[in-house]
Design goal:
By secondary structure, this protein is α/β, with parallel strands linked by helices. The chain has one domain: Luciferase-like domain (TIM Barrel), CATH 3.20.20. Helices cover 37% and strands 15% of the residues. The strands form 3 sheets. An 8-stranded parallel β-barrel has the order 1-2-3-4-9-10-11-13, surrounded by 7 helices. The model has no long low-confidence stretch (mean pLDDT 93).
């Protein structure tokens, strides 16, 4: 039986996500990001296309590395203004039945105690369709905004994350027993206090002494996504993640990352097959190759390479404006931002040297990921080739023009994948975790670190 392809839509509660300048396209609706109508319409569209989830990016801070200030980011709306992604999820959940929601939340700036409540609340309201994309932050401007003089170092941020995970696991998994809630109107007892426990966590970075504020939600722990593909990030993913979001400009780069993550998962005592790996991709398609190419050329008239370098500078921590445009980019461990972004254009593929000018052109549509332009048949072929050659499980699909990019894929590409038997015709029942892993698997398996704290 051929491997089933999983699709997530990749969006952000802002105007410019991965394709700077494309918000000016007459058919683009990204500037409606601050309305319920935009998100409700998108959720309905994605569920019609049987997408597994809407994967919502987020960032704290301003992209102010490029040219030493925030002016380009502010003028070009480069991921600013950016609203809270969690606030729009209940509205989308109300108008859908199956679509999952993977939401990005940085653990660096919020204590585990209130955060655990926020995730449990969303798991209840979505009936078990919530996932958490675990990130540690990468912008110095975010650290300053939170009252810090500078951002914590890259590897130490993952040490903070390890401590954080142990605290939230205890709150989600160990505080309330499965049968603690009675809802017994006759005896006037809502819960049995003897089955509700105060948990304690005394870590290097976080201390918790509390009862979790929420009764057990359908999944307890949300589906765990992780989006850091640096060496340290891969180890964190192998230890904790169920879904791993990686990024790379080529199959070679992506395939090497996938192999390393699965190897690390095996060494951590987990089944590598329990990890679903997604890579980012932007698809521009039409009924014919000529139609897709014409659309791509039309999109190129709206790109802004200056804004693209603003994104890349923020991701890598390097000011691309200060570099010669035709000099190859080199890896430096001094960067204290998203090391995987820097690795993807340097040491991950030693056969290819990227200049600043080439990176600007590449990132102008689709950010760091590849852009596929072709007929629906050709896109379907590319999907299957990437799956076969890199061992990924699916794609986080960014948009060039929203919602046009998604509707093109749903109307043109999805039916071909379904006819080939590599894409579902209907959703599986149950929670997001059950849809990903199978019926009766609403909770994390015994092999996962979270299971160690259960009563």
């Amino acid at each position: 039986m051929p491997k089933q392809i999983r699709l997530n839509a990749f969006d952000m509660n802002c105007v410019v996500h991965q394709s700077p300048g494309l918000w000016t396209h007459p058919r683009d609706q990204a500037d409606r990001y601050n309305t319920f109508d935009y998100w409700v319409d998108l959720a309905r569209l994605l569920e019609r296309g049987k997408f597994d989830a809407l994967f919502m990016a987020d960032v704290l801070g301003i992209y102010d590395v490029y040219k030493g200030g925030p002016e380009t980011a502010l003028e070009q709306a480069v991921q600013v203004p950016v609203n809270d992604p969690l606030m729009v999820i209940p509205a989308m959940a109300l108008v859908t039945e199956h679509l999952g929601f993977g939401v990005t939340c940085a653990l660096s700036y919020e204590h585990p105690y209130p955060f655990a409540r926020r995730m449990s609340t969303l798991d209840h309201l979505t009936k078990g369709r919530i996932g958490w994309n675990i990130v540690t932050g990468y912008l110095e401007s975010a650290a300053r905004g939170m009252g810090m003089t500078e951002q914590v170092g890259h590897d130490e941020r993952y040490a903070v994350a390890e401590d954080y995970m142990q605290a939230v696991y205890k709150l989600w998994e160990a505080s309330w027993e499965d049968d603690a809630v009675l809802r017994d109107r006759t005896s006037r007892r809502f819960a049995d206090p003897s089955k509700i426990h105060r948990i304690t966590h005394q870590g290097q970075y976080f201390q918790v002494d509390a009862i979790h504020l929420c009764e057990p939600s359908p999944q307890r722990t949300p589906v765990l996504y992780q989006a850091g593909a640096s060496t340290r990030g891969r180890q964190f993913a192998a230890d904790h993640a169920e879904c791993v979001f990686i990024n790379g400009p080529s199959r070679k780069v992506v395939g090497n990352i996938v192999a390393d993550i699965r190897r690390r998962a095996r060494e951590a005592g987990r089944d590598p097959a329990d990890l679903s790996v997604f890579t980012m991709m932007t698809v521009i398609t039409g009924r014919t190759r000529a139609e897709a190419q014409a659309k791509y050329q039309e999109y190129l008239t709206h790109v802004n390479e200056d804004a693209a370098l603003t994104l890349m500078s923020g991701w890598t921590g390097l000011d691309f404006a200060a570099m010669p445009p035709d000099e190859p980019l080199r890896f430096t461990e001094k960067a204290n931002a998203m090391l995987s972004a820097l690795e993807g254009f340097t040491i991950s593929d030693p056969d290819r040297q990227w200049t600043v000018r080439e990176i600007a052109r590449h990132a102008a549509i689709g950010g760091r990921g590849p852009v596929i332009v072709g007929s629906a048949e050709e896109v379907a072929d590319e999907f299957q080739a990437w799956i076969a050659e890199t061992d990924i499980d699916g794609f986080n699909l960014a948009y060039a023009v929203t919602p046009e990019t998604f509707s093109d894929i749903i109307d043109l590409v999805v039916p071909i994948l379904q006819d080939r038997g590599v894409y579902k015709r209907d959703y599986a029942p149950g929670t997001l975790r059950e849809k990903l892993n199978g019926p009766g698997r609403a909770r994390l398996p015994a092999s996962h670190p979270a299971a160690k704290v259960r009563r």
